[in-house]
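Teaching assistant's notes for section 4

Start the section by putting this record on the projector. Ask students to predict, before seeing the second block, whether Activating signal cointegrator 1 complex subunit 2 will look compact or extended. Collect guesses on the board.
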Amino acid sequence: MACAKVPLDELHVTEPFGPQGKERTLPALHPDRKEERCFLSYKPPPEDGTAALLEEFLENAQFISEDLEWLLALPHDKFWCQVVFDESLQRCLDSYLRHAPRGLDPSGLSSSPAVADMQRNIHRSVFMVFLRMATHKESKENFITPAVFAEIIYNNYLFDIPKILDVCVLFGKGNSQLLHKMIENIFTQQPSYYADLNETIPSISQVFDTILQMCGIQSEDTGTGQPLKLNANKCQTAMTMPEEELADLLLYMCDTCTTIHSFLDIFPEACSTFKEHNFLNRLSSFYEMAVPDLEKAVKKRNFNKSLQEDMWRRISHSRKKMVEIAHLLLQHTCLQPILEGTESMASCVDDLLQNFTAFLQEKRLIMSKFLSKVMVVHVIYDSQDDTRTSYLLQGVESAWECVGKKRSFPSSANHSAGAKSKTGRDLAGAVCTVSAGELESLLCHIRDLLPDLGEGFILACLEEYGYNSELVINNVLEDKLSPSLDKLDRAMARPAKKELPSVLSTRSNAFDDDEFDVFNRDQLDMSRIWKGRRQRESVRATLDDKQHIEEQRERYQAYQTVVDEIPIENDPSRDRDNAFGTYDYDDEYDDTYDVNQIGANDLDEEDELLNRRPFTTPQVLRKGKQAQEDDADEDEEEEDKKDHFVQDPAVLRERAEARRAAMQSRKGYRPPPASHVVGGPRGRGQMQDTVLDRRRKEANKSRGANHNRRTMADRKRNKGMIPS
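Reveal the predicted structure now:
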């Protein structure tokens, strides 16, 4: 049995052997102690979701999941025997790293919940196997000597650089700290992996050269000194290459950029190795040369909509990861030593400024997160060469102007003077002169350099110092904040945004508070609301509705009662003049002409002056029989009073036409026969009269109108009327 506190590489175990059960002593790590078990290779979930393919995947995945769970349950010595000597296990793990779906890859996980659960189980089991393989000490009793552990994982290819890169991509989300400890232990115990990484980086750079070559772009860094071939310019470009090749090219670039970013983000210690190969300049050159052509090809070419969206998503993701890779390399190779104040601070500042000087040609890359780094270097490290930083800032500003965006950046000299002469008290109460997007950019720049500060504290500092991010960083690092900021918690969170009042509460409308205002009323009379034509109502029903006539009938009937004579009763108690209210005394009445007898000398009879026009009831208010009688009376009156002096014009025209025809017949004039030139529709044949009329018209059409102008002009010229 195993002894306590003895490393696995020195441990020997005694086990029965053979059919007779004889005991034998073997090292704990021995091929004969390996269990005979065949691990299946992993296959990704089917994309089309066919029932047969899903069943096949679930069956294969179930076997893999059970085998990995069995492996993880083995004791320490049995686990390492299986890992070191079982080749089928290594093929299973390699197949998962190669075929497991990445973040942007289409997969069939959404087709079935069972498929998604099985994929999660395998994903967790594979991660736990790699994590256990990277641990040389599980407990005080179960451990391996570090030197032997380094030889085991290196000589048996349990880990290599491609495997480590794939592990970072697949398991980095949510496990970054655990993966960092795992990879750090591998590189610490076996430094040979640094040499392998040093040999791998040129291959990664070759990937960029291959992409440029496939796009028909000649890179300056890949020049071999040999002359170009005659057909070198005839190679295909991103605009002319086949659709499948372009999709594979974008997938290749996206996978490469994502893998490098995941590895550097989890294991920043590798940034120095990438720096030795001048990888940052190579990356910036590739970004400037390849990304615009690929974006143009995806936008301009006609692809399937789903394919075009997938390609644009991949190229956007690649562009983002390339910028973040450059940010990580600068952060961990230049800025971090500067912020920590190490001995190599001056050289790091010089390296950072050299990198930015090289970036000035790559205008698309410098318009990202790098402006703040230039100013931070100038603030933290009081550079004597202000001209250099001013030159860099002007280059960044010109890069923004090249893409049509105007941005003004403070010069380093002005900044230095402001930082030395102004204090937070002088800048207090500054008004926000930046937009929301620029404010978020300032927050990101400061948090990239000072991640321990809260967004609320950074906002307060920006407001205090006039939204000058460089001045904020300088005062925070030199501990020269104003007293009002010193009292604040540096981890203060960002205050919640005030909710704006709703549009309905601030609106103003002419129909507010009416019977149909649904925003201010809880109940409405739905009987007065309908969509389209009102139900059970037609035009005939509307015309037959005479209710309004009945309402007006009583009003007009009051006018029908006409009082010709006013009876006056012999009642001495009543005033005669005030009978029926016919007389009202008016002190201002003008009675100058009351003695004149108006109409006395006229020839009209007395009865005509006294007679009044009888009242006529409107037709709409008359009843049926009365209305018909009155209409008959009016028709008779109209017939009697009809004016026969103005005759009907149609009758007059008929009479004139008759007289004209009679006159022509007396003179022997025969009217021309009716023409049948128009004829019937095409394709049905024409009558004989139509054919003759058309022929006659064709022969005689030069007699009138403007058809004989040439003939008459020749005639005038022959007679000398027109000079020739």
